[in-house]
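Supplementary Note 3. Input sequence used for the single-chain structure prediction.
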Amino acid sequence: MRLSPLLSIPAYTVLAVVVSFVFVDTAHADQASDIQAKIDSRASDIQALEKEIKGYQDQIAALGGQASSLSSTIKSLDLTQKKLQADINLTQDKIDSTNLRIQQLAADIGTTQGTIDDDRRFVRASFKAMNESGNADSLPEILLSSRTVSEAWGEVNHLGILQSDLQGRIESLGKSKDRLESNRKASEKAETDLLALQKQIRGQRSAVLSAQSEKNTLLKQTKSSESAYKQLLSQKQALRDAFQSEILDYESQLKLAVNLANLPQSGSAPLSWPLDQLRITQYFGDTPFATANPQIYNGHGHDGVDFAASIGTPIHAALSGVVAGYADTDIIPGCYSFGRWIMIRHANGLSTLYAHLSAPSVAVGESVATGQIIGYSGNTGYTTGPHLHFGVYATEGTEIKLFTNSRHCQGATVPLAVLSAYLNPLSYLPALPR
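The predicted structure, written as C-alpha coordinates, is reproduced below.
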Protein backbone atom coordinates (compact mmCIF):
# COMPACT_ATOMS: atom_id res chain seq x y z
CA MET A 1 0.00 0.00 0.00
CA ARG A 2 1.24 3.51 -0.78
CA LEU A 3 1.87 5.86 2.17
CA SER A 4 -0.26 8.98 2.19
CA PRO A 5 1.64 12.24 1.71
CA LEU A 6 0.94 13.18 5.32
CA LEU A 7 2.34 9.90 6.63
CA SER A 8 5.34 10.07 4.31
CA ILE A 9 6.72 12.98 6.39
CA PRO A 10 8.80 11.36 9.16
CA ALA A 11 7.01 11.44 12.51
CA TYR A 12 10.13 12.53 14.40
CA THR A 13 10.40 15.60 12.12
CA VAL A 14 6.84 16.66 12.87
CA LEU A 15 7.39 16.02 16.59
CA ALA A 16 10.60 18.08 16.62
CA VAL A 17 8.87 21.01 14.96
CA VAL A 18 5.93 20.84 17.37
CA VAL A 19 8.14 20.55 20.49
CA SER A 20 10.38 23.38 19.28
CA PHE A 21 7.36 25.57 18.63
CA VAL A 22 5.93 24.83 22.09
CA PHE A 23 9.18 25.79 23.83
CA VAL A 24 9.63 28.96 21.75
CA ASP A 25 5.99 29.94 22.21
CA THR A 26 6.19 29.41 25.99
CA ALA A 27 9.38 31.48 26.25
CA HIS A 28 7.81 34.25 24.19
CA ALA A 29 4.68 34.21 26.34
CA ASP A 30 6.79 34.60 29.51
CA GLN A 31 8.78 37.45 27.98
CA ALA A 32 5.65 39.17 26.69
CA SER A 33 3.99 38.87 30.10
CA ASP A 34 7.04 40.42 31.80
CA ILE A 35 7.17 43.34 29.35
CA GLN A 36 3.42 43.94 29.62
CA ALA A 37 3.69 44.06 33.43
CA LYS A 38 6.37 46.73 33.14
CA ILE A 39 4.25 48.71 30.64
CA ASP A 40 1.28 48.54 33.03
CA SER A 41 3.49 49.77 35.88
CA ARG A 42 4.66 52.74 33.77
CA ALA A 43 1.02 53.52 32.87
CA SER A 44 0.18 53.69 36.58
CA ASP A 45 3.15 56.03 37.20
CA ILE A 46 2.10 58.23 34.27
CA GLN A 47 -1.43 58.55 35.64
CA ALA A 48 -0.08 59.58 39.09
CA LEU A 49 2.29 62.15 37.57
CA GLU A 50 -0.46 63.66 35.42
CA LYS A 51 -2.52 64.15 38.59
CA GLU A 52 0.47 65.74 40.35
CA ILE A 53 1.08 68.12 37.42
CA LYS A 54 -2.59 69.13 37.39
CA GLY A 55 -2.28 70.07 41.05
CA TYR A 56 0.73 72.30 40.37
CA GLN A 57 -1.05 73.91 37.41
CA ASP A 58 -4.07 74.75 39.56
CA GLN A 59 -1.86 76.34 42.23
CA ILE A 60 0.07 78.37 39.64
CA ALA A 61 -3.18 79.55 38.04
CA ALA A 62 -4.52 80.63 41.45
CA LEU A 63 -1.37 82.68 42.07
CA GLY A 64 -1.71 84.24 38.61
CA GLY A 65 -5.10 85.59 39.63
CA GLN A 66 -3.56 87.51 42.53
CA ALA A 67 -1.98 90.94 42.41
CA SER A 68 1.63 90.74 41.28
CA SER A 69 4.10 90.79 44.15
CA LEU A 70 7.59 89.53 44.75
CA SER A 71 6.45 86.85 47.15
CA SER A 72 3.76 85.51 44.81
CA THR A 73 6.17 85.57 41.85
CA ILE A 74 8.82 83.62 43.79
CA LYS A 75 6.20 81.14 45.00
CA SER A 76 4.96 80.73 41.43
CA LEU A 77 8.51 80.08 40.22
CA ASP A 78 9.03 77.48 42.96
CA LEU A 79 5.81 75.71 41.97
CA THR A 80 6.81 75.97 38.33
CA GLN A 81 10.12 74.22 39.00
CA LYS A 82 8.30 71.40 40.80
CA LYS A 83 5.83 71.13 37.92
CA LEU A 84 8.65 71.10 35.37
CA GLN A 85 10.44 68.32 37.24
CA ALA A 86 7.18 66.35 37.26
CA ASP A 87 6.90 67.05 33.50
CA ILE A 88 10.38 65.61 33.01
CA ASN A 89 9.54 62.54 35.11
CA LEU A 90 6.35 62.08 33.07
CA THR A 91 8.24 62.28 29.79
CA GLN A 92 10.88 59.85 31.08
CA ASP A 93 8.14 57.36 32.00
CA LYS A 94 6.72 57.76 28.49
CA ILE A 95 10.19 57.13 27.05
CA ASP A 96 10.58 53.99 29.18
CA SER A 97 7.09 52.81 28.20
CA THR A 98 7.81 53.40 24.51
CA ASN A 99 11.10 51.48 24.78
CA LEU A 100 9.21 48.58 26.36
CA ARG A 101 6.61 48.74 23.59
CA ILE A 102 9.39 48.59 21.00
CA GLN A 103 10.82 45.50 22.77
CA GLN A 104 7.36 43.96 22.84
CA LEU A 105 6.87 44.56 19.13
CA ALA A 106 10.36 43.25 18.32
CA ALA A 107 9.65 40.01 20.20
CA ASP A 108 6.28 39.64 18.46
CA ILE A 109 7.88 40.33 15.09
CA GLY A 110 10.47 37.61 15.77
CA THR A 111 7.83 35.09 16.83
CA THR A 112 5.57 35.92 13.89
CA GLN A 113 8.49 35.58 11.49
CA GLY A 114 9.22 32.17 13.03
CA THR A 115 5.60 31.12 12.53
CA ILE A 116 5.75 32.23 8.90
CA ASP A 117 8.96 30.24 8.36
CA ASP A 118 7.41 27.12 9.97
CA ASP A 119 4.26 27.40 7.86
CA ARG A 120 6.31 27.84 4.70
CA ARG A 121 8.43 24.76 5.51
CA PHE A 122 5.32 22.68 6.21
CA VAL A 123 3.59 23.76 2.99
CA ARG A 124 6.71 23.08 0.91
CA ALA A 125 7.26 19.69 2.58
CA SER A 126 3.62 18.71 2.07
CA PHE A 127 3.61 19.54 -1.63
CA LYS A 128 6.92 17.76 -2.06
CA ALA A 129 5.59 14.68 -0.33
CA MET A 130 2.48 14.70 -2.51
CA ASN A 131 4.56 14.93 -5.67
CA GLU A 132 6.98 12.21 -4.59
CA SER A 133 4.19 9.83 -3.56
CA GLY A 134 2.32 10.39 -6.81
CA ASN A 135 -0.86 11.21 -4.93
CA ALA A 136 -2.09 13.55 -7.56
CA ASP A 137 -4.39 10.67 -8.64
CA SER A 138 -8.07 11.24 -9.10
CA LEU A 139 -10.60 9.45 -6.89
CA PRO A 140 -11.37 6.74 -9.51
CA GLU A 141 -7.65 6.02 -9.94
CA ILE A 142 -7.23 5.66 -6.17
CA LEU A 143 -10.17 3.26 -5.98
CA LEU A 144 -8.91 1.12 -8.93
CA SER A 145 -5.33 0.96 -7.64
CA SER A 146 -6.27 -0.03 -4.07
CA ARG A 147 -6.50 -3.69 -3.08
CA THR A 148 -9.53 -3.18 -0.85
CA VAL A 149 -12.30 -0.63 -0.47
CA SER A 150 -11.13 0.00 3.09
CA GLU A 151 -7.63 0.79 1.87
CA ALA A 152 -9.03 3.14 -0.80
CA TRP A 153 -11.17 5.10 1.64
CA GLY A 154 -8.25 5.28 4.07
CA GLU A 155 -6.14 6.83 1.33
CA VAL A 156 -8.89 9.33 0.45
CA ASN A 157 -9.27 10.22 4.13
CA HIS A 158 -5.54 10.90 4.46
CA LEU A 159 -5.69 13.14 1.42
CA GLY A 160 -8.62 15.06 2.92
CA ILE A 161 -6.74 15.57 6.18
CA LEU A 162 -3.67 16.77 4.32
CA GLN A 163 -5.66 19.18 2.15
CA SER A 164 -7.49 20.56 5.17
CA ASP A 165 -4.22 21.03 7.09
CA LEU A 166 -2.60 22.65 4.08
CA GLN A 167 -5.49 25.05 3.72
CA GLY A 168 -5.24 25.96 7.41
CA ARG A 169 -1.49 26.51 7.12
CA ILE A 170 -1.88 28.72 4.05
CA GLU A 171 -4.55 30.80 5.78
CA SER A 172 -2.29 31.07 8.85
CA LEU A 173 0.54 32.19 6.60
CA GLY A 174 -1.55 35.04 5.21
CA LYS A 175 -2.68 36.20 8.66
CA SER A 176 0.88 36.04 9.98
CA LYS A 177 2.12 38.18 7.11
CA ASP A 178 -0.60 40.79 7.85
CA ARG A 179 0.33 40.77 11.53
CA LEU A 180 4.02 41.09 10.70
CA GLU A 181 3.38 44.14 8.51
CA SER A 182 1.13 45.71 11.15
CA ASN A 183 3.76 45.19 13.87
CA ARG A 184 6.51 46.63 11.69
CA LYS A 185 4.46 49.80 11.07
CA ALA A 186 3.68 50.06 14.79
CA SER A 187 7.38 49.65 15.57
CA GLU A 188 8.33 52.40 13.12
CA LYS A 189 5.76 54.74 14.72
CA ALA A 190 7.04 53.89 18.20
CA GLU A 191 10.59 54.73 17.08
CA THR A 192 9.36 58.09 15.76
CA ASP A 193 7.47 58.75 19.01
CA LEU A 194 10.61 57.88 20.97
CA LEU A 195 12.71 60.43 19.09
CA ALA A 196 10.05 63.09 19.70
CA LEU A 197 9.95 62.29 23.43
CA GLN A 198 13.74 62.42 23.69
CA LYS A 199 13.67 65.84 22.02
CA GLN A 200 10.85 66.91 24.33
CA ILE A 201 12.72 66.03 27.50
CA ARG A 202 15.70 68.10 26.35
CA GLY A 203 13.36 71.08 25.87
CA GLN A 204 11.80 70.54 29.29
CA ARG A 205 15.23 70.51 30.92
CA SER A 206 16.00 73.81 29.20
CA ALA A 207 12.75 75.21 30.62
CA VAL A 208 13.86 74.18 34.12
CA LEU A 209 17.11 76.08 33.68
CA SER A 210 15.14 79.11 32.43
CA ALA A 211 12.89 79.10 35.52
CA GLN A 212 15.88 78.72 37.84
CA SER A 213 17.70 81.55 36.08
CA GLU A 214 14.65 83.81 36.29
CA LYS A 215 14.30 83.23 40.03
CA ASN A 216 18.00 83.79 40.69
CA THR A 217 18.05 86.98 38.61
CA LEU A 218 14.91 88.31 40.28
CA LEU A 219 16.29 87.73 43.78
CA LYS A 220 19.58 89.34 42.81
CA GLN A 221 17.88 92.41 41.31
CA THR A 222 15.42 92.95 44.16
CA LYS A 223 17.44 91.63 47.12
CA SER A 224 14.09 90.21 48.32
CA SER A 225 12.63 93.72 48.64
CA GLU A 226 9.00 94.24 47.61
CA SER A 227 9.57 97.92 46.90
CA ALA A 228 12.59 97.09 44.76
CA TYR A 229 10.42 94.60 42.85
CA LYS A 230 7.79 97.27 42.11
CA GLN A 231 10.50 99.66 40.99
CA LEU A 232 11.96 96.97 38.71
CA LEU A 233 8.56 96.40 37.08
CA SER A 234 8.20 100.13 36.47
CA GLN A 235 11.68 100.34 34.89
CA LYS A 236 10.96 97.36 32.65
CA GLN A 237 7.72 98.91 31.43
CA ALA A 238 9.42 102.22 30.64
CA LEU A 239 12.18 100.46 28.67
CA ARG A 240 9.63 98.30 26.89
CA ASP A 241 7.58 101.37 25.93
CA ALA A 242 10.69 103.10 24.55
CA PHE A 243 11.61 100.15 22.34
CA GLN A 244 8.02 99.69 21.21
CA SER A 245 8.02 103.31 20.09
CA GLU A 246 11.17 102.65 18.03
CA ILE A 247 9.52 99.63 16.42
CA LEU A 248 6.36 101.58 15.53
CA ASP A 249 8.45 104.35 14.00
CA TYR A 250 10.30 101.85 11.86
CA GLU A 251 7.13 99.98 10.87
CA SER A 252 5.52 103.22 9.72
CA GLN A 253 8.35 103.61 7.21
CA LEU A 254 8.05 100.11 5.74
CA LYS A 255 7.03 100.07 2.09
CA LEU A 256 5.39 96.65 1.90
CA ALA A 257 2.08 96.09 0.11
CA VAL A 258 -0.39 93.54 1.43
CA ASN A 259 -2.97 92.00 -0.89
CA LEU A 260 -5.67 90.59 1.39
CA ALA A 261 -7.10 88.63 -1.55
CA ASN A 262 -4.03 86.37 -1.39
CA LEU A 263 -4.83 85.28 2.17
CA PRO A 264 -7.11 82.46 3.37
CA GLN A 265 -10.69 83.50 3.90
CA SER A 266 -11.54 84.70 7.40
CA GLY A 267 -13.34 81.94 9.29
CA SER A 268 -11.87 79.13 7.18
CA ALA A 269 -9.75 78.00 10.16
CA PRO A 270 -6.51 77.05 8.35
CA LEU A 271 -4.62 77.20 11.66
CA SER A 272 -4.64 74.90 14.67
CA TRP A 273 -4.46 75.98 18.31
CA PRO A 274 -0.85 76.36 19.50
CA LEU A 275 -1.66 75.00 22.98
CA ASP A 276 -3.43 71.92 24.30
CA GLN A 277 -5.20 73.86 27.08
CA LEU A 278 -6.75 77.20 26.08
CA ARG A 279 -7.34 80.23 28.25
CA ILE A 280 -7.13 83.60 26.52
CA THR A 281 -5.89 86.41 28.76
CA GLN A 282 -5.88 89.18 26.15
CA TYR A 283 -7.53 89.34 22.75
CA PHE A 284 -6.45 91.09 19.56
CA GLY A 285 -7.03 94.78 18.92
CA ASP A 286 -8.38 97.49 21.20
CA THR A 287 -8.64 95.39 24.31
CA PRO A 288 -9.23 97.05 27.70
CA PHE A 289 -5.55 96.56 28.55
CA ALA A 290 -4.42 98.03 25.22
CA THR A 291 -6.77 100.98 25.61
CA ALA A 292 -5.55 101.60 29.16
CA ASN A 293 -1.93 101.49 28.00
CA PRO A 294 -1.79 103.56 24.79
CA GLN A 295 1.90 104.23 25.38
CA ILE A 296 2.56 100.53 24.73
CA TYR A 297 0.38 100.05 21.66
CA ASN A 298 0.45 103.55 20.23
CA GLY A 299 -3.28 103.42 19.72
CA HIS A 300 -3.10 100.40 17.37
CA GLY A 301 -4.26 97.88 19.94
CA HIS A 302 -2.85 94.51 20.93
CA ASP A 303 -1.20 92.83 17.92
CA GLY A 304 -1.87 89.22 18.83
CA VAL A 305 -3.63 86.92 21.28
CA ASP A 306 -2.19 86.06 24.70
CA PHE A 307 -2.77 82.62 26.20
CA ALA A 308 -2.18 81.66 29.81
CA ALA A 309 0.66 79.13 29.86
CA SER A 310 2.92 78.28 32.76
CA ILE A 311 6.64 78.03 32.07
CA GLY A 312 7.52 74.86 30.20
CA THR A 313 4.13 74.30 28.52
CA PRO A 314 4.65 72.71 25.05
CA ILE A 315 3.92 75.08 22.16
CA HIS A 316 2.72 73.57 18.87
CA ALA A 317 3.11 74.85 15.31
CA ALA A 318 -0.29 76.16 14.19
CA LEU A 319 0.38 74.98 10.63
CA SER A 320 3.16 73.33 8.66
CA GLY A 321 5.80 75.70 7.35
CA VAL A 322 9.40 76.83 7.63
CA VAL A 323 10.99 78.55 10.62
CA ALA A 324 11.76 82.03 9.27
CA GLY A 325 13.28 83.50 12.41
CA TYR A 326 14.33 82.95 16.01
CA ALA A 327 15.98 85.34 18.44
CA ASP A 328 16.24 86.22 22.11
CA THR A 329 15.89 89.92 22.94
CA ASP A 330 16.85 89.16 26.56
CA ILE A 331 20.49 88.74 25.57
CA ILE A 332 20.56 92.56 25.25
CA PRO A 333 20.56 93.98 28.81
CA GLY A 334 17.64 96.34 29.30
CA CYS A 335 15.86 95.27 26.10
CA TYR A 336 12.32 94.20 26.97
CA SER A 337 10.40 92.92 23.99
CA PHE A 338 9.41 89.44 22.78
CA GLY A 339 12.14 87.65 24.71
CA ARG A 340 12.66 84.31 22.99
CA TRP A 341 10.45 84.17 19.91
CA ILE A 342 9.90 82.02 16.81
CA MET A 343 8.28 83.01 13.51
CA ILE A 344 7.02 80.40 11.03
CA ARG A 345 6.09 81.17 7.42
CA HIS A 346 3.35 79.07 5.89
CA ALA A 347 2.54 78.25 2.28
CA ASN A 348 -0.87 79.98 2.39
CA GLY A 349 0.50 83.52 2.79
CA LEU A 350 0.30 83.61 6.59
CA SER A 351 3.09 83.78 9.14
CA THR A 352 2.71 82.94 12.85
CA LEU A 353 4.65 84.29 15.82
CA TYR A 354 5.24 82.57 19.17
CA ALA A 355 6.79 84.85 21.80
CA HIS A 356 8.00 84.91 25.44
CA LEU A 357 9.25 81.31 25.19
CA SER A 358 11.51 79.67 27.75
CA ALA A 359 13.17 77.40 25.19
CA PRO A 360 12.86 76.74 21.45
CA SER A 361 13.10 73.23 19.99
CA VAL A 362 13.49 74.15 16.31
CA ALA A 363 16.05 76.08 14.28
CA VAL A 364 15.84 78.71 11.56
CA GLY A 365 15.28 77.11 8.15
CA GLU A 366 13.77 73.95 9.64
CA SER A 367 10.54 72.59 8.19
CA VAL A 368 7.86 71.89 10.80
CA ALA A 369 4.57 70.01 10.70
CA THR A 370 1.19 71.10 12.03
CA GLY A 371 1.02 70.28 15.73
CA GLN A 372 4.75 69.70 16.11
CA ILE A 373 6.26 70.95 19.38
CA ILE A 374 8.40 73.97 18.45
CA GLY A 375 9.24 75.24 21.92
CA TYR A 376 8.08 75.79 25.49
CA SER A 377 6.27 78.75 26.99
CA GLY A 378 8.03 81.07 29.36
CA ASN A 379 8.28 84.50 30.91
CA THR A 380 11.02 86.02 28.77
CA GLY A 381 10.94 89.55 27.39
CA TYR A 382 8.42 92.05 28.72
CA THR A 383 5.56 90.22 30.42
CA THR A 384 3.28 90.61 33.40
CA GLY A 385 3.46 86.85 33.95
CA PRO A 386 4.19 83.64 32.03
CA HIS A 387 2.14 83.36 28.84
CA LEU A 388 2.28 82.75 25.10
CA HIS A 389 1.92 85.71 22.76
CA PHE A 390 0.56 84.33 19.48
CA GLY A 391 0.54 86.57 16.43
CA VAL A 392 -0.69 86.06 12.85
CA TYR A 393 0.61 88.14 9.94
CA ALA A 394 0.29 88.51 6.19
CA THR A 395 3.73 87.24 5.18
CA GLU A 396 4.23 89.74 2.34
CA GLY A 397 3.91 92.60 4.84
CA THR A 398 6.54 91.34 7.30
CA GLU A 399 10.29 91.36 7.68
CA ILE A 400 12.75 90.32 10.38
CA LYS A 401 14.96 93.20 11.49
CA LEU A 402 18.32 93.34 13.27
CA PHE A 403 18.43 96.67 15.10
CA THR A 404 21.89 98.13 14.61
CA ASN A 405 20.82 101.54 15.82
CA SER A 406 18.68 101.50 18.96
CA ARG A 407 18.87 103.29 22.28
CA HIS A 408 18.29 100.23 24.46
CA CYS A 409 18.04 97.24 22.08
CA GLN A 410 21.02 97.56 19.74
CA GLY A 411 21.77 94.07 18.42
CA ALA A 412 18.24 92.78 19.02
CA THR A 413 16.39 90.93 16.23
CA VAL A 414 12.61 91.22 16.05
CA PRO A 415 9.81 90.62 13.51
CA LEU A 416 8.24 93.76 12.04
CA ALA A 417 5.17 94.38 9.90
CA VAL A 418 3.19 97.12 8.22
CA LEU A 419 -0.03 97.90 10.06
CA SER A 420 -2.20 96.13 7.45
CA ALA A 421 -0.20 92.90 7.89
CA TYR A 422 -1.31 92.43 11.51
CA LEU A 423 -4.21 89.97 11.49
CA ASN A 424 -6.60 88.81 14.18
CA PRO A 425 -5.51 85.24 15.01
CA LEU A 426 -9.06 84.25 15.92
CA SER A 427 -10.09 84.90 12.31
CA TYR A 428 -7.93 81.94 11.23
CA LEU A 429 -8.23 79.58 14.21
CA PRO A 430 -11.03 77.08 14.93
CA ALA A 431 -13.92 78.17 17.13
CA LEU A 432 -13.03 78.16 20.81
CA PRO A 433 -14.11 74.89 22.42
CA ARG A 434 -17.02 75.29 24.82
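Confidence is low (pLDDT under 50) at residues 1-22, 135-139. The longest helix spans residues 149-222.
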